[in-house]
Amino acid sequence: MNEASINAFFTPRGVAIIGASARQGSPSNQILKYSKEMSLTGNVFPVNPTAKEIEGLKCYGSLLEIPETVDLVVISVGASKALNVAYEIKERREAVGDAGAVAIVSAGFKELGTEEAIALQDEMIATIKSCGARVIGPNCQGVVDIYNGINTTFSVPPVTLKGGLTIISQSGAFATSYLRWAKDHKLVGINKFVTLGNMADVDVTETLAFMADDERTKVIAMYLEGTTDARKLMDVAKSVTSKKPIVAIKAGRTAAGSNVAHSHTASIAGDDNIYDGAFKQVGIIRANTIAEFYHTGRVFDKMPIPKGNRICILTVVGGPSTICVDALTETGEAQLAHFSDELVTSVQAVLSGNANVGNPDGYIDMTASITPVMHKDALALLMADDSIDGIIFITTPPGFIGSEDLAKAIEEGYNAVPEEKRKPLFSVLMAGNAVGDCRVMLEEKGFPTFEYPDEAARVMINMIRYSNYLKHNGVDERM
Amino acid sequence: MNEASINAFFTPRGVAIIGASARQGSPSNQILKYSKEMSLTGNVFPVNPTAKEIEGLKCYGSLLEIPETVDLVVISVGASKALNVAYEIKERREAVGDAGAVAIVSAGFKELGTEEAIALQDEMIATIKSCGARVIGPNCQGVVDIYNGINTTFSVPPVTLKGGLTIISQSGAFATSYLRWAKDHKLVGINKFVTLGNMADVDVTETLAFMADDERTKVIAMYLEGTTDARKLMDVAKSVTSKKPIVAIKAGRTAAGSNVAHSHTASIAGDDNIYDGAFKQVGIIRANTIAEFYHTGRVFDKMPIPKGNRICILTVVGGPSTICVDALTETGEAQLAHFSDELVTSVQAVLSGNANVGNPDGYIDMTASITPVMHKDALALLMADDSIDGIIFITTPPGFIGSEDLAKAIEEGYNAVPEEKRKPLFSVLMAGNAVGDCRVMLEEKGFPTFEYPDEAARVMINMIRYSNYLKHNGVDERM
């Protein structure tokens, strides 16, 4: 048999869920429900010898009994039963020619570290691969494709927003936490979601390579524990980053963390310094914290890449802005923009008499005497000025400006210039859930918001790093 | 006249609000409303020559007309009118003997950097001080004392929770952002709240010294831009930290940030390396990010100080825990605890057969086969073990465990040991607002929760730093 394409995971003509369960709330029930709810074709086939029908779908006794085309097989049975399913996949593929993509959600394999578990995984994978089928997992949550209506997870709800972010993760829990974090305030829209678990066949490198040519993937957020061939990963990453950004968080940086990673997905974390240097060389943007990872991934989807490192601060709050400027300038990669006399005069003209425009250079404190129109007008002037590459707007939204008015002012200020003039605009709303409605309005329109001004600064630096990488590698056309 | 005590700001027999306004939503109206709503005595006196009554309170034409005792005067008029108020304060204090505490909320003084504004501030302050009264501000939001019902701000709502945290800040917006951040999930309970603005009289050093002996202050969270006498600040801080922790965030670390601070409160930020070294020497715990500052302040209020640096990870999610262990161990200040064989056996006995107990040492992955009772029993065993100094529990709460059951299990596990055995327990709930109810239940019972496991680790390290400081300075009795 020919080897199946990775594409089969994302565009299967039919999906079989082996071990689908009728027990409400169980993972194997949830997987079926999500698959059914999201499917654009309706070709979802539960397999469970003890049931005739689950969730209103005809249930089959085995994979071999399904009369229709099944490109994607999801294995969600106990580890001891998984080997038998592998042989059925081989049999089916050799007989019918489909079943080329296999997502093994079951755990209890190599990550346990026992000889039996390792042998079981090896035989299962070898069996499936012997007929040219490809495997994601085991010990993973498989794949989601929001646009194509594919979902093998029990944790990514069908209501997840569409966007240009693709998540690749060795940890299922880590990837789903990202979406749960984002949900309430609509912070993230995704395209694809791939959790790789033990990476017994398809690994992070091959997945990355696939996403390079995936048109709907605008940015890749990658959680990495380790890989057996770091050099190959970096070679592939280099070709990807010339087309779209990769944001990575690397786990197992320390000896203790590396031991945890090994007990988790049998990964070998490797020397962190080598990874760190390699990431820089191939243009992977490394996040130092989970919060930074979450935000950096999403801003690349929502905002254009900055043309340079000259950032303007527009604020109504001095203290938080001081901390923002510290974080922005401390690495030397970003600087406050230089305001021309004309810009200072024109911004002063649209703000109140108390406003501080340009002390220090690149910094504007509108003070508390503000209106929505001032926000809009000031933003429009800053957007139009070519000596500014990005804007961080910081506010503790005052009670006398309504959420809708504030969101609209930001949107109108940003959109006052044509698309080719646009630059990243981050809005820091320091108010917890108190202005949740304003946050959601902005996020829905594609304007990233933040809670902490220093985090916004660090994420802006990450955007600048990618911009610099493209420039230094002669890849300017995207900007 | 004798110099008034700082105490008058927090326990005034009467409060006059100069410039109180009837205009709904304006700061000067809000200050009056909050003062009235929170006052335990009812002695709140609006002063405004254009009104007879505001918010149901008799309004006076000037401070001099108030027939009752006024210990605290809040100035909330335009800068140009503030000098006249200063002379009235002097007149009243010399005639009646009260009016010893003055909070100047008005802005438009030294922070503008103009000669006139500086001269105006100087004359105003000199006038007030000449009669022994003390000044907080100008360009600040003044003080809050939640227990005594005092509130001179327009931004700290009367519903703010009571607790042991006292906030001292040169930036009003920064301090109120902390409370807005905390509000929805009830993350923080405060005692006092002091914003100092331009620090023309009472400064951060004197405020710190006062809090050393303030019994309800269990921990101090301090936002600092700069001080004219750093040595004195450190001397005072040293005596405070022998009694209670100080968590600080220092703004103006960079040249650009320092310029912003100067335009904000006329502060001189000073050399950051000197501050950094001095903080360490006197036991001030420095937060590197706003998020870390917010959390570190609050955990010292909610949890006991750890006796050592041996931390146990209890988790259901491998990936996020790997990142947590990286963050926990990377500075060398914390380590994973060592489990005795007895502990491993007893923890294994209360968890499912799949659970990983002690691989690596100090680490427990309960896996997805969990019940509330397992959480409770495992926590109780870890709490009782003297080779563990702190616990970080990490979960993406599964759908099959109810929020209330989870919160109760955590509480019962923690409380299974007597108070003297208690150690810090952080609960990381990686789920955004999806488990907001569980978060609130835990926070209300005094159990700090987190969104990010690496942040929890960094905050645990901050607790360990303070514990180490106390040990190395012979101050062990608090632990």
Automatic annotation (TrEMBL), chains A, B:
Q: Which residues form the CoA-binding domain?
A: 9-109
Instruction: Specify whether Nucleotide-binding is a keyword of the entry.
Output: yes
A Pfam family cross-referenced in the UniProt record is CoA_binding_2
- Decide whether keyword Translocase is in the record: no
Going by the UniProt record, its keywords in alphabetical order are: ATP-binding, Ligase, Nucleotide-binding
What's the name of the protein?
CoA-binding protein
Q: Which organism is it from?
A: Fusibacter paucivorans
